[in-house]
Backbone:
């Protein structure tokens, strides 16, 4: 390993730890994810994946579970931007699949044919995609069965559905 | 005459005048039974007990239609979303009584509008304070309310969070309210009540959330329950033999009752549709015919006892929710006089049933593509590929299930045939005008494990839909005497709003792109069109004030279409929600 690489490695690790230290206290309060939760509601992710992210059947199709999803943040962002070909997951980036644009699965609309994902009703900005990815990866993925605190974090303490879970 | 006597006479006159005014304002049982004799009013959800939605008014007709212009508009409000729904829509049929309109939005907010002077003037608003997230999270198909009902000096209406409310017509104050449905177990209410005698009949929604459906009669004098009848029988009750599982599937068996029924006062029978069995797409969870899902049910309105039934799609693997309205019509079939109930099912067939005994008369397809069965048996009314020896029905073999996770292309799709949007019957022509959804789709089934009970308030569908092709529609005319389709007015979009036929030989319907269209009842030639600028998923009505006829309709795109099906209806993606009443009259 060259000196430069070592330097870079140390810098990156140091940066990561510094960032992690900055993020941890925020995530403990949950306030860091309010923007992402707002996007999750606005873009109607919960219409199919449900408020808890477990997905399942319904008129939107059979949505996959975000709680069990193995996707990393980059892959999540890609699926949100570009949709998932051959499924009901729509694309949320306005310019995706426009003309010869191949940023999504290296494919054009014509090449995907019948597998072409639906267009979302609400397009998202890159910053909004970052927010919702941040929310999903930190508040939904790999967090087991949703509980009372998850419910309150999503719907608020006054929500009857959360009061029901507390019983 | 002494002063004292004069005062007595004046006093008596005042009392009589007040009594007469109160009388005019009262929606008596006599008036409800004879609603057809006051065509200037629209006092039932479906216009009359026979649910024909025919306006016996002819000032607006094929000759004068060119002069039909907007008379007034009124913004109801109420588009706020809640739960899983970003917006609320308008699906309601407004009611009109003696120059006053009662209109309701998706959250059950009821508004009284004075329309006596040919414009809209606010009178009062009753806001029931519906819990939006509590109810909106378990509303399968949008934040919707189909309409209100009138009785005495009260307006009866439901809320999405499951209440029946009696509101004073004069001041908009709530007289009483009663909690009927329980959102904690996935129940909501979207249906308009039907008033029979001194009872309000209410239905329930939630067939996608594993409810056990019911009809309930509320005593209008007290607000207390008179009876409740489950549409899915308990063990030992008639019909329970059609639930042949070993895990109490009946407890979550579906059979929701979310479209208003009809009533024959001579037979004293109440007719109501019961919806799909649950879970929608795993029929092996519920072996057997699953009565009374997907059935027309005839009940004794005094006790709620089921007198007879007719089932359309036993052991349904397609979500062919048989809840659609039952239109009562007396006509001839093959030269024989018959008392029919007519039902256009999601499965693509129009059924004519003898409403005196539930016997099958005929069925005929009203859609362009239908492949789930090879046909309906001409004497039994069962699908010809129904196997009475089998607990699991396969029909044409295209359904998904435990051994076939993905279905073939199924036509019609689960949205229709025809959905809840009501059809209209023209009695003089014996013609039925059906708002048709022409669609096919694929279904992915998952297994609803036998040992797992559905989780309250979670979807219990055991699968989902893949909409692989465009959904279109048509207004379809059927000659009821023969059952034959005579005309189709094609539409590039599905018909989601419902139909009104009039004595002016016009047929009105609203389209999801916002156009209100009038057709010639003779041949469905288009005669008139007005773009309202939003989407329509509510039925038109007609009323008159001082002899002047109006056509009115709620315009507020909501429901499932903008959410689940937007990719299958290109052109509608830019249709924005609104919340308006439009009224039209000759200029």
Residues:
């Amino acid at each position: 390993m060259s000196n430069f690489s070592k330097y870079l490695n140390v810098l990156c690790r140091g940066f990561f730890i510094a960032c992690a230290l900055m993020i941890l206290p925020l995530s403990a309060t949950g306030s860091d994810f309010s923007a992402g939760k707002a996007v999750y509601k606005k873009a109607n992710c919960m219409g199919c994946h449900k408020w808890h992210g477990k997905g399942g059947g319904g008129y939107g199709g059979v949505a996959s579970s975000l709680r069990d999803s193995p996707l990393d943040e980059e892959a999540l962002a890609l699926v949100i931007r570009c949709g998932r070909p051959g499924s009901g997951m729509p694309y949320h980036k306005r310019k995706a699949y426009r003309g010869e644009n191949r940023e999504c699965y290296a494919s054009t609309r014509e090449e995907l044919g019948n597998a072409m994902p639906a267009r979302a009703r609400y397009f998202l900005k890159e910053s909004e995609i970052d927010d919702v990815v941040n929310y999903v990866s930190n508040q939904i993925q790999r967090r087991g069965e949703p509980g009372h605190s998850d419910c309150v974090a999503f719907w608020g303490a006054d929500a009857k559905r959360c009061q029901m879970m507390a019983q | 005459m002494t002063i004292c006597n004069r005062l007595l006479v004046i006093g008596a006159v005042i009392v009589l005048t007040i009594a007469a005014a109160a009388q005019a304002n009262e929606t008596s049982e006599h008036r409800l039974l004879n609603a057809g004799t006051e065509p200037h009013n629209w006092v039932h959800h479906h216009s009359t007990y026979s649910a024909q939605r025919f306006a016996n008014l002819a000032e607006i007709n094929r000759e004068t239609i060119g002069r039909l212009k907007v008379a007034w508009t009124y913004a109801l409000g109420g588009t706020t979303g809640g739960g899983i729904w970003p917006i609320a829509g308008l699906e309601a049929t407004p009611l009109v009584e003696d120059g006053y309109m009662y209109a309701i939005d998706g959250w059950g907010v009821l508004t009284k509008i004075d329309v006596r002077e040919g414009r809209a003037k606010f009178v009062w608003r009753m806001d029931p304070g519906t819990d939006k997230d509590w109810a909106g999270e378990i509303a399968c198909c949008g934040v919707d309310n189909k309409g209100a009902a009138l009785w005495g000096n009260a307006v009866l209406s439901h809320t999405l969070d499951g209440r029946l409310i009696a509101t004073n017509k004069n001041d908009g104050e709530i007289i009483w309210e009663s909690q009927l449905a329980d959102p904690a177990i996935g129940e909501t209410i979207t249906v308009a009540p039907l008033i029979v005698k001194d009872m309000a009949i209410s239905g329930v929604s939630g067939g996608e959330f594993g409810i056990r459906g019911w009809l309930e009669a509320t005593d209008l004098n007290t607000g207390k329950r008179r009876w409740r009848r489950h549409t899915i029988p308990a063990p030992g009750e008639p019909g329970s033999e059609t639930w042949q599982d070993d895990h109490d599937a009946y407890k979550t068996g579906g059979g929701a009752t979310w479209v208003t029924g009809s009533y024959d006062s001579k037979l004293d029978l109440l007719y109501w549709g019961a919806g799909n069995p649950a879970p929608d797409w795993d029929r092996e969870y519920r072996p057997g015919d699953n009565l009374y899902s997907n059935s027309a049910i005839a009940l004794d309105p005094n006790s709620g006892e089921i007198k007879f039934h007719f089932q359309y799609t036993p052991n349904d693997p397609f979500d062919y929710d048989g809840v659609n309205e039952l239109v009562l019509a007396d006509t001839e079939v093959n030269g024989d006089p018959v008392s029919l109930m007519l039902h256009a099912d999601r499965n693509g067939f129009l059924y004519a049933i003898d409403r005196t005994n539930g016997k099958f008369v005929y069925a005929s397809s009203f859609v362009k593509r239908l492949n789930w069965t090879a046909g309906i048996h001409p004497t039994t009314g069962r699908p010809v590929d129904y196997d009475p020896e089998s607990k699991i029905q396969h029909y044409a073999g295209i359904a998904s299930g435990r051994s076939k996770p993905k279905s073939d292309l199924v036509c019609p799709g689960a949205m229709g045939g025809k959905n809840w949007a009501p059809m209209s019957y023209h009695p003089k022509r014996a013609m039925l005008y059906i708002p048709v959804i022409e669609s096919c789709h694929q279904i992915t089934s998952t297994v609803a494990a036998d040992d797992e009970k559905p989780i309250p308030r979670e979807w219990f569908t055991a699968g989902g839909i893949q909409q692989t092709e465009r959904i279109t529609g048509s207004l379809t005319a059927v000659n009821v005497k023969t059952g034959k389709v005579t005309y189709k007015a094609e539409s590039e979009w599905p018909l989601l709003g419902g139909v009104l036929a009039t004595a002016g030989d016009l047929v009105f319907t609203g389209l999801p792109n916002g156009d209100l269209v009038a057709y010639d009842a003779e041949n469905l030639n288009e005669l008139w069109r007005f773009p309202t600028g939003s989407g329509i998923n509510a039925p038109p009505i007609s009323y008159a004030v001082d002899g002047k006829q109006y056509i009115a309709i709620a315009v507020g795109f909501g429901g499932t279409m903008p959410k689940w099906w937007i990719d299958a209806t290109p052109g509608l993606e830019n249709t924005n929600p609104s919340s308006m009443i439009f009224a039209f009259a000759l200029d």
Notes: Confidence is low (pLDDT under 50) at residues 13-23 of chain B.
